[in-house]
Amino acid sequence: MIIGFFSDHNFLTDESEEIYTSGTLDSLFWKRYLDNGAHHVIAVGRYGGAVRGRPKSASAANVSIRFSESLSSPLGLIGFLNDDVIKETVREVDKVIVRLPSEIGNRAIHHAKRLGIPVACEVVACPKDALQFHGSLSAKLYSHFAAYRMKRYVGQCDAALYVTQVELQRRYPNIRFVASASNVELHEIKKDCMAERLSRFRKRVSKGELTFGLVGTLQNKSKGVDIAIKALAGKNHKLVVIGRGSHNEYTELAENLGVNVDFKGFINQKEVVFSELDDVDIYLQPSFQEGLSRSTLEAMSRGCPVLTSSAGGFAEITHPEFLHNPGDHKTLSADIDKALTEQTLQKLIFHSLKTSEKYLRANLNAKRIFFYKTFFSEEFPRSL
């Protein structure tokens, strides 16, 4: 069986034409399809340019990767232009998987439905959040149309796999074959960290010098780095930020507000990221857009207390007393002050460890395997 995978993911290349991922679609990612019934995967995404830094390879046996033109321009949105690669690939495959939100995914759904090819969507985020909270006036206006379009496309799919338990299902429902399994796969939980964390907290809080952490891209404002800096204004603490992109704008803001920020840049080695998280007293994720945050769950698996926005699926993992509306740095600042007692910190550490257990790989694999095996089976009905 040949599976087509469609998303707006940016793939990178080097001089030898090896293909790399700009995110999480590495060579091991395709096993979720190949191990559960697919014999070959044809992935269609965007060309993101030449390799930068030390990315992971996206190439794998029985996987072909093709580049489509970006469809996010006004011309791409108003008509079926520049989608020849998508159309031809849909014709070659037995079943289609799309990752939404994505314009390439939307177009693949359109062609698959016309040809009667079964299509499943992986719903990983809400487009309205990004456009509504961080964009121009035209982007804010378009956010409502983007949400409407995604709701319509998800509803057309023959199957839907959500990364949240409730939130994205509520916004973008599908009444056919539905399952829930986060894209985040944790390999271990650092269960023995409570005593060490509380001991370190006592020493640091007595000096008024705690370490806060945030992992997220600096290439756009979706992760709310500026919100974290504003929330820490007037507090004698350090913020450690890990993520790809220029920090010049944020450095200027931090200097103006007197906030000590250590920008670590992008760290490819997971063990190094975990080492940094192990030294964080409180983790902040004031994002404007999320599905279910990988970096937050990874921080929770290390025992970090977390304070987050209410975007996406955060309400499913964050302690309800420590959620703030996206962009509300004043509430986040108050939450930081509220968290700075040993009793509260102990409660949040316990919450992080207990919640992150649900996202261990072994617990998620069963759900994901059942979904893909069912969708890939010959008995799965043809698209309506």
SSE succession: EEHEEHHEHEHHEHEHEHEHEHEHEEHHH
Summarize the main sheet.
8 strands, mixed
Uncertain regions spanning at least 5 consecutive residues: none
CATH topology of the largest domain: Rossmann fold
Residue fraction in strands:
15-25%
Rg from alpha-carbon coordinates:
21 Å
- Helicity, as a percent range: 25-40%
Number of domains: 2
Helix and strand composition category: alpha/beta
Q: Any idea of the CATH class of the largest domain?
A: Alpha Beta
Proper CATH architecture of the largest domain: 3-Layer(aba) Sandwich
The gross shape turns out to be: globular
CATH superfamily of the largest domain, called what?
Glycogen Phosphorylase B
Q: Please report the total strand number as a whole number.
A: 14
Q: Given the structure, what is the number of helices?
A: 15
Spatial gap, N to C terminus: 20 Å
Helix and strand topology:
Elements: E1 2-13, E2 19-21, H1 31-34, E3 40-50, E4 63-68, H2 74-78, H3 84-92, E5 95-100, H4 103-115, E6 119-123, H5 127-133, H6 137-156, E7 159-162, H7 167-171, E8 177-180, H8 194-207, E9 211-215, H9 225-231, E10 238-242, H10 248-257, E11 260-265, H11 270-278, E12 282-285, H12 294-301, E13 306-309, E14 323-324, H13 329-339, H14 342-356, H15 361-376
Helix pairs in contact: 3-4, 5-6, 8-14, 9-10, 9-13, 12-14
